[in-house]
Amino acid sequence: MAEKKLNVLVGGEAGQGLATLGPILVKSLVRAGYHVVVTQSYQSRIRGGHNTFAIRVSVDKIAAPREAVDILVALNAETVALHRGELASRGVVVVDETFAISGDGVLVVPYKELAAGRYRNVASLGIVSYLVGLDERVVADVVAGYFGKKKKELEENRRALERAFAWAAGVDTSYQRSLVAVDEPPKRLTVNGNEAVALGAMSAGAKFCPFYPMTPSTSIPLTLIAHAEDMGLVVEQAEDEIAAINMALGASYAGAPAVVATSGGGFALMVEGVSLAAMTETPVVVVVAQRPGPATGLPTRTEQADLEFVLCAGHGEFPRAVFAPGDVAECFYLTRKAFELAQNFQGPTFVLTDQFLADSYRAVEPFDVGGLPPVGAYAAPLEFAEPYARYAVTESGVSPRLLPGASRHLVVVDSDEHTEDGHLTEDLDARRRLADKRLRKAAGLRAEVIPPRYEGNERPELLLVSWGSSAGAVAEAAAALAADGVRAATLHFSQVWPLVPSQFVNRLRGAKRSVCVEGNATGQLARLIRAETGLDVGERVSRYDGLPLTPEYILRELKK
Amino acid sequence: MAEKKLNVLVGGEAGQGLATLGPILVKSLVRAGYHVVVTQSYQSRIRGGHNTFAIRVSVDKIAAPREAVDILVALNAETVALHRGELASRGVVVVDETFAISGDGVLVVPYKELAAGRYRNVASLGIVSYLVGLDERVVADVVAGYFGKKKKELEENRRALERAFAWAAGVDTSYQRSLVAVDEPPKRLTVNGNEAVALGAMSAGAKFCPFYPMTPSTSIPLTLIAHAEDMGLVVEQAEDEIAAINMALGASYAGAPAVVATSGGGFALMVEGVSLAAMTETPVVVVVAQRPGPATGLPTRTEQADLEFVLCAGHGEFPRAVFAPGDVAECFYLTRKAFELAQNFQGPTFVLTDQFLADSYRAVEPFDVGGLPPVGAYAAPLEFAEPYARYAVTESGVSPRLLPGASRHLVVVDSDEHTEDGHLTEDLDARRRLADKRLRKAAGLRAEVIPPRYEGNERPELLLVSWGSSAGAVAEAAAALAADGVRAATLHFSQVWPLVPSQFVNRLRGAKRSVCVEGNATGQLARLIRAETGLDVGERVSRYDGLPLTPEYILRELKK
Amino acid sequence: MVKIKDYGTYETAWCPGCGNFAILEAVKKALVSADLEPHQVLFVSGIGQAAKAPHYLNANVFNGLHGRSLPVATGAKLANPELKVIVQSGDGCTYGEGGNHLLAAIRRNVDLTMLVHDNLVYGLTKGQASPTSEDGFVTKAQPHGPTAEPFNPLAVAVAMRASFVARGFSGEVDHLAELIEQALAWRGFSLVDILQPCVSFNKVNTFAWFKQRCYILPADHDAGDFDAAMKKAYEWGARIPLGVIYRRESDSFEAQFPAVAAGPLAGQEVDRAALATVFNKYA
Amino acid sequence: MVKIKDYGTYETAWCPGCGNFAILEAVKKALVSADLEPHQVLFVSGIGQAAKAPHYLNANVFNGLHGRSLPVATGAKLANPELKVIVQSGDGCTYGEGGNHLLAAIRRNVDLTMLVHDNLVYGLTKGQASPTSEDGFVTKAQPHGPTAEPFNPLAVAVAMRASFVARGFSGEVDHLAELIEQALAWRGFSLVDILQPCVSFNKVNTFAWFKQRCYILPADHDAGDFDAAMKKAYEWGARIPLGVIYRRESDSFEAQFPAVAAGPLAGQEVDRAALATVFNKYA
Ligand SMILES: Cc1ncc(C[n+]2csc(CCOP(=O)(O)OP(=O)(O)O)c2C)c(N)n1
Ligand SMILES: Cc1ncc(C[n+]2csc(CCOP(=O)(O)OP(=O)(O)O)c2C)c(N)n1
Ligand code: SF4
Ligand code: SF4
Ligand SMILES: [Mg+2]
Ligand SMILES: [Mg+2]
């Protein structure tokens, strides 16, 4: 019987080729019409250690990773030792004959007959592809795309793939876990969270990205660089994160929509610059891909513990908007929204992701270029009083913004308190007027808030509250509860600041029992909700061991 | 009739000697047995502009500055123009004859007959001293102490003082505002907030203070340097604030209790280091003297707008304690407490002051050296398991701390997640255990919280809630209301984190009307209280024009 | 033709007698000689007394954070290569808090001019030692003088083979104006360290002190010769050379970015067709 | 007598073939030759592959933040001058993020040894250019090579007349161990830039590449001669000199603090009488 859902876990050392095998397998699955949710787990080292690449694949839409493994592809023996316990019933383990591992469901592969050492990951790819019922041509195409220009490598890999498929065709069918075939697979993109952020930024009109490498954010600038020439982007490695955000502000001031991406420690160094963006009223999008802290913490793992930090980062008071995408498509659309608000309200906006989402490949509906106006592009104001004053006081708090050098008008911006024309002042009335002007922008931002998404029973006995990347796990946990007859519902925040209580307090009040599910130890969203509404989200499910929330984890914790 | 209270305002350009005149006058008043509250207002420039030094002086204890001026000492004509409107009835204005200003209450002084230009500030000092009834010998003594080693200067200043007293003795007695004399004045210290922080740190056993200059914090390290040789302190100017906090952590790790002091922008650069202190469990006291932001803002003015920033500064989750002294004596004692908690709980603690308090001289009861054990001194643990593990997991979360080099035991600390012995790990169980250990320290910190101070009517119709340096203004405003028959009370937080709701929720619930009085625009304490208790402090009085809260301001706003 | 008065006159917050006035005058002269109109010029500064300078003339201004002027200037120049970008800040700002950015700017060779008002002290924060303060310079923060040796910006810049390294003095306004003009005309990063008395906090390196020591480099100084430049960079004490110390033609930073070569980024629309092609790579 | 085995053996997270192994070995050898016991030594590091090194031997360790090892080390040394403080970190950590602290450490001349594992690349973050990466070094982040000229740490250190400036190579372990021993014996700040292949991300500056070019400076190199040192600091390409490039006796930083001269600060009680006197000054 063909499967509608499967969970494939590939494990091995860093350097054994997971980072090639995984994305190729995923892209093949997406091209064959399946949905996927990828979870990458790796260590802060380049060779050795233990890494995994888990692909949950399904004929229907799915939103979260799962724990039980249907096919375990072990590139080394340690993988079997570590993950055998996670096997579902009828689970298959694919091993090399040299591991000397056997038993029920263990498929022993004579890799040395299929490929030389360097190409064994592609041989593994072939075998698992066969087991899940992928068409060899689909996989071969993806392989061809991947090794594209490197002729010799491509040849060797292609051969390994072929041999693997051929060998696999000969094994006992009990090892097969064929997926139900999808007829006429629709075109979808295979994108991870970081790529989606980068693509969203490009589509929004980003022109400038200065960066300092920091896991798990680095692939955002790397994706931008990969397309820099085609898209007319400037991407420059900065000497440190302080330089990165200040370069972004300089560029943005001069008219180039700018984005910076980093993680907690790098963001800590940008905090002064965030305050500068607010004071000078310079648009900038700041992407923070969270990882477990404090300090260096677990640099390659995931956590949702920088919410309060990002909300309060920067000295002095100023409005901001903070988005927390719940999936890869939202990474794209909310990054665009962050650009839009940064430009329209002239200040810093934030996109808060995490390692899980950053590295999680998904099948995404194609973005419609036609429907994506570049929101980031600078639009000259239609009118303004002369002599031009950069900080003319307005009702909305937003002042007409000109660009330096673009006309004879001078554009003067200042990190000190200033008069309307941008020159520094110590006049305390001016201070108050200008501070009020800046703070008035909060109302405009509030008017644009994306309300939290409510789903499920209208009179729930259990309401799960969540934010950011845990959206999928929470949704699937709620679905599982509903299937068990529990009147469950979810309230999910993809924008975490500002909050507009009227959008959701009734939902909180309407639930018999409510539980805040967060990837942190102290319950930061719960605290935020109480700060804004006075309401207590009674209980908590917390995870802070570096791994993403899963439906199973949530269900286990709820039972405790 | 002699006065029990007076408000003296001295105004002039930067460079005219206010910074000499003011402190000498204050110290003289304190030596004569009076209480004082000083408010300094100056600009971000070295010469010119307009600065004021306001001394509220009283026979009885006082807590706040006041707005109505009894004696206006104008070192330039502009001062009269700017401040004449603030005069109380029967107010006196002291001017130079060259200003060509006259009128009721204007005392025209022929300064050029009394002293050469450089010494006119001391001539002014003499005149105002005479007017308030100070004994010439008291003032002359303070002058002698001030110019101590500079013989020639001392001579010139002494002469100016003498001439001024002599001249003043001849003026109409209607200009006099003699204070009620204090018999046998008790010994008190004349100290401002920054000095008190520095003295508190020294008494607590601070040994190391790396700093980067930043108004209004700079006089903390300068005070420490002034006593460095006597007290065996190491004070070093760092290349930047990042270096400052990292140097502090290195020194603290090696056994020297360390303190850093800065303001918002400099603190922004220390945020990564704060997180490092938490992860490595290294004690450090961080003093943040607030000024108006965002960014450079108003560098020499006051504000209370970095509360949330300090509460949430640093990536990842970790416990901390944040003190906000309400007066100068508290600057001393709470800095000591911050050292105590930093050492006992092995992590970062904070002292949050502001420009008003930092520069505000007060008459302080002498500190009793005998009763001040050096809390900061490192105490070797009585027992620990061998082999020594820096992060041994304990019930309290606090691990026995040894110093590197002090024994054969090796002390290994790490910014990455680590095992108990301090070596970096990627073991996710260890992560959880160590994170739990660190977070458990929160309970210990909570047990030591200084409860908010409640004063006034037990069933108030009006409760004023406040934190930090506005304590005095709020107390005096409440007293004024009470005098008017209003059942008023105050709830004041000198420790703003952690909060223990049980210590104060009944007070909030018991008030008919409650108003949060804060030196910021968005009501940060009110938000914090709601986050921790769910309770709404209904109304707000906010000030964010760079000036400190005064009783009059609060009363005016309450009437609105 | 641009005139001095196009750059306006402003009240300043500087002390009477401060060297900053003469530097401001020299800057204006250089701008006029270079025939630059106010709107063509962008001044970027940090925080300090020197960093206030751009507020005292007509131009585009980005007055940013203490120590962070160079990254802002770099970003602005990349976004709009048509702007003439001038950075103005103090010795503390540039060589202290901002040291790492100076190293990076020299290495990048961005086309901008860095004017350092070097008064050998932190002026605005009331007289602490700066990186350039000399041995034995006593302040309230350094009661026995600085604990570290003075930073020699010229020597470091020369050692890094910076593109254009010069020293001026506020007491030689015409020479300084000329030097700034040369720096403005230079393609690439130009560093001009400008000696400046601080009458309020530097009672050692006074106007007279500088005047006595500073001399204008003779025409035969070969700014292209590394060794000669290094020697001049180290001349300090009895005699202090003024002029272009070192000069080296090298590749322009901005030219490496095709988008920048196409003019101001603000004017470049998002190419929808290219975007569609990019999206397709993920299919 | 201290033995190599006192420093232990640990499993590492480095790639097989990495130059870090040899550096670790050389460090241990130097410690043994210097007869330093593990508890007498403090290693401070930042973040990166190199920065993990101190975890792989027995000693006191403060593994701090990326780029911030030098300030931590400076603080620790001031707090306990009896510790032998060694800083170990990568080229990115030290010359990139930490550039400003390197300038300050050289100027301060704190008595500590800075070992830079210079693999000309950011290893741990998977192969971006570092400040020392050469022109044309292609990476995913630098598809046309670095946009800035390489940083020459030796030239900058010499230009600042740093106290002790040396270069080692992981492929010459004995020479490197000796160099480190000299650095440890040196009173003041010693900088040892250690060339190191990164087998995973630097396919240009490989072991063979270094081996072919590196030579040990002849005995007649005068490390006291500024010009000769500057020349050697710039030798790169066909031949790369190893050894002590520059050396200059200069005053110790710590000696300026009387409290530090009195030994570890942790052992110094608060002087109650002095405190009372201080309080009294405010009366
Ligand atoms: C991050 C930060 N740290 C410290 C300060 C305080 N600060 C303002 S100006 C200044 C020093 C200025 O010295 P310099 O750059 O030499 O300029 P000058 O005033 O001498 O012209 C300092 C330390 C600040 N504004 N921001
Ligand atoms: C503030 C901060 N920014 C960025 C990082 C990410 N990071 C970790 S190691 C590293 C580069 C390491 O390069 P290098 O110092 O040369 O060491 P190597 O790995 O090559 O030995 C970076 C950028 C970080 N940990 N902290
Ligand atoms: S303090 Fe010094 S640098 Fe600043 S304005 Fe006055 S004289 Fe000039
Ligand atoms: S990535 Fe390079 S530097 Fe890091 S361990 Fe591997 S070979 Fe060594
Ligand atoms: Mg200066
Ligand atoms: Mg490196």
Overview of the molecule:
The complex is a heterotetramer, with 2 copies of chain A (560 residues) and 2 copies of chain C (283 residues). Chain A is built from 19 helices and 21 strands. Chain A is an alpha/beta fold and 560 residues long. Chain A has 3 domains: 183 residues, Pyruvate-ferredoxin oxidoreductase, PFOR, domain III (Pyruvate-ferredoxin Oxidoreductase, domain 3), CATH 3.40.920.10; 175 residues, Rossmann fold (3-Layer(aba) Sandwich), CATH 3.40.50; 107 residues, Rossmann fold. In chain A, helix 16 links the parallel strand 17 and strand 18. In chain A, helix 10 runs parallel beside helix 11 and helix 16 packs across helix 19. Chain A starts with a strand and ends with a helix. Chain C is an alpha/beta fold and 283 residues long. Chain C has a single domain, classed as Thiamin diphosphate (ThDP)-binding fold, Pyr/PP domains (Rossmann fold). Helix content of chain C is 32%, strand content 16%. In chain C, helix 1 crosses helix 6, helix 3 crosses helix 4 and helix 5 packs antiparallel against helix 8. The longest helix of chain C has 14 residues. Chain C starts with 19 loop residues before the first helix and ends with a helix. Chains A and B meet through helix 11, helix 12, helix 15 and helix 18 of A and helix 11, helix 12, helix 15 and helix 18 of B. Strand 15 of chain A pairs parallel with strand 2 of chain C. The complex binds thiamine diphosphate (TPP) (2 copies), iron/sulfur cluster (2 copies) and magnesium ion (2 copies). The site of one magnesium ion has 9 residues of chain D, from helix 3. One thiamine diphosphate (TPP) sits at the interface of chains D and A.
